[in-house]
Amino acid sequence: MSKSPLRILLAKPRGFCAGVDRAIQIVEHALERYGRPIYVRHEIVHNRFVVENLEAKGAIFVDELSEVPDDAKVIFSAHGVPKSVPAETKRRDLFYLDATCPLVSKVHNKAQYQQRNGRHILLIGHEGHPEVVGTMGQVPDGAITLVETVDDVARLDIPNDAPLSYVMQTTLSVDDTAAIVEALRARFPNIAEPSSDDICYATTNRQEAVKVIAKQCEAMIVIGAPNSSNSNRLVEVALRSGCSDAALVERADEMDWTRFEDCQTLGLSAGASAPETLVDEFIEACRNRYDVTIEEVTVHEENVHFNLPRALTE
Q1: In this structure, is the dihedral angle defined by the CA atoms of residues 35, 36, 41 and 45, taken in order, positive or negative?
Q2: pTM of the prediction?
Q3: Given 131, 182, 254, 281, the catalytic residue
């Protein structure tokens, strides 16, 4: 029986960003250098496949430092942590490595700088996301306010002439964030703006690639974890950019094939914490069902690299 044809438009760039790659390497190098176990506070990145692979190598993932024994070594996740976390490791004399993405650390530094200069900080982001928790924990209580939507801007109980600045979660929708920034400018004309957007290059590039593909396909699949902010944003971007249907799929075996059975042109991307292995797995699952043709759609070439901590390279 012949297979129906399926044209896959494969986004490039997709998948791992430099910050995710660095974080995973930190755990792997630490295990090689210091032996198992290595404790990791929170998921090193938001991808269960990655976490389970590292667990098999000897990493132990915990929610809080209280779960880490006194003689253990611990790594902070790529999303960043409040200042209270490294302070607690030092109090307990724990050895730690910080796998915070350098671009997230840059946001931390901006927030601290603006707070030291007497400005109240508005953080554009999603409540409860580990990156937001980490950024809010860089400054004293009450010095930063979370803004999630344009409507939140109107509800802010802050004088219009108050000294303000803003920073952003790095994995947001570029378009949503632009609307919030415009609302902030309109309400607070004197707000201090960062020299550049905090949304990271990888988030921006992947969203741009999805926008290009969405106009050419009937449906879009994004490989990524349900708790991955940047992966969820890619699904939203696809729908807003002209794609009639889009879904987030963690693994190929979770795919609802009946939902897309009439699709002839399928867009495919992956969140910044999804390994290429899962993309290959999905394509292979497609080949088992369809006569697949793949066209890679390149929007940007990426060559960003972040160095490992000195403790792992000396």
Answers
A1: positive
A2: 0.95
A3: 131
